Structures are given as structure tokens and as C-alpha cells.
Amino acid sequence: MNVEVEIEQLLRRRPELRATETEIVSAYRVMEQAYAAGGKLLIAGNGGSAADAEHMAGELMKRFRKPRPVDRAFAEKLLAVDAERGGKLAKNLERGLTAIPLVAHEALTTAYINDVDGLGVFAQQLFGYGQAGDVFLGISTSGNSENILNAAVVARAMGIKIVSLTGTGGGKLAKLSDVAVMVPETETYLIQELHLPIYHFWCLMLEKYFFGETDE
């Protein structure tokens, strides 16, 4: 897999991201290393960035561009349990890269907001789901979203790497991050337009690394 070739293709499509090339690749390497060591990705954002968190998790937990069939040993276990259902599952299940969007658990989040602290809801989930060796991806166009900053503080205390996606300057979140990808825009919707091709690049690279270059 040639990361240099793929990043160059991204930059040809989105030349305004060239100033963030080093950070985009460095963030990918952080995720690659975490997954290779058995870790996972925890993602949070607000509003449109919450949608991005769910979008990225969905791309990682199933195919992005290529099928990811289960291995033969697990397929045989499924068939041994139930020949009919197991056969369908062996055909349709896909291997995933564990990614948890911290924006998606309505009962938990609303209970915590109601009972404890509205700005601590991502921090609480990170504390519950995370462990040393994981990666926290905080998406904040300003870099100053208090609930994202609270989660980043917890991540740092737990030994969880922090990657951030922000706009120009990066805000307070950039200072807490191991890698801060600060796209060169200041208006929210324009920042978000540049975030999507970046996390699609990460999904593509992770899929190629862990599941191979070509369709099976």
C-alpha cells in the first residue's frame, strides 16, 4: 500500500489541503498503529460534526470500497451452529474496524445530560468505552467545543491518543491533540466540506492496510 500515492490523489482533488498533508498522514498512522495493536477509534462531534462521527464509524465497521468477508474458520463455526442462518451470515457478515460514535447512544447521553452534566457526556462515554491504546477523534470546526475538550482531557489522562479535525487555528483542542488536522477555512460549512475528504482518506487507507488492496 502506497500512502504517498493516495495522499497525492487526495491533494489533486482538494489542493487546499496541501498545507495539512503531514498532519493528515500522521493522523492516519496513529489510527493504523492503534488498530494493529488491538485498539479502537472513539469519535465525537456536534451538529454536522456529529453526523461526520457516525458517517466515519459506518465506513469503518463494514466495507468502504471492497468486500471484507469473514475468514473460513469463522464461517465454518457459523455453519456448525445453524446451517441455514449460518450460511447467510457467512456470506453477508463483514469484518470491521471497531469505531464507536459517541454521539449515537441516546438513552445514555440524555440520561447523563439530565442527571449529571450536559458538557460531560462525551467524557463519560470515553471513560466507559475507552482504554489505553485507543484513539479519540474529536471533530470541532472551532476547536473550542467544551464537550469535546472535556473528552480530550479524559483521553489524555487514560493514555488514549487524540486526533482532532478542526478549522484554521485549531482552537484549544489542537493544543490537547497528538495530531491536529486544521483545515484552511474559518466558516463552519466550509470547514465541514473539507473534513469529509480527509476522513474518507483515512477510511480508504485503513481498509487497504487491514483488508488488502483488491476485491476478494
**Any idea what the radius of gyration is?**
18 Å
Number of helices: 10
Backbone shape = globular
CATH superfamily of the largest domain: Glucose-6-phosphate isomerase like protein, domain 1
Helix content: 55-70%
Mean pLDDT: 96
Number of strands: 5
Fraction of residues in β-strands: 5-15%
Derived structural class:
alpha/beta
General description of the model:
- The chain has 216 residues and is an alpha/beta fold.
- The protein has two domains: 175 residues, Rossmann fold (3-Layer(aba) Sandwich); 28 residues, no CATH class.
- It has ten helices and five strands; from the N terminus they run H-H-E-H-H-H-E-H-H-E-H-E-H-E-H.
- Strands 2-1-3-4-5 form a five-stranded parallel sheet, sandwiched between helices.
- Helix 1 runs antiparallel to helix 10.
- The mean pLDDT is 96.
Labels describing this entry:
single chain, 216 residues, alpha/beta, Rossmann fold, 5-stranded parallel beta sheet, 56% helix
Helix/strand layout:
Blueprint: H1 3-13, H2 21-36, E1 41-45, H3 48-60, H4 72-81, H5 83-92, E2 99-101, H6 106-115, H7 121-129, E3 135-139, H8 146-158, E4 161-166, H9 171-176, E5 179-182, H10 188-211
Parallel strand pairs: 1-2, 1-3, 3-4, 4-5
Helix pairs in contact: 1-10, 2-10, 3-10, 4-5, 6-7, 7-8
Give the gist of this structure.
The chain contains ten helices and five strands; from the N terminus they run ααβαααβααβαβαβα. By secondary structure, it is α/β, with parallel strands linked by helices. The protein has a five-stranded parallel beta sheet with strand order 2-1-3-4-5, with helices on both faces.
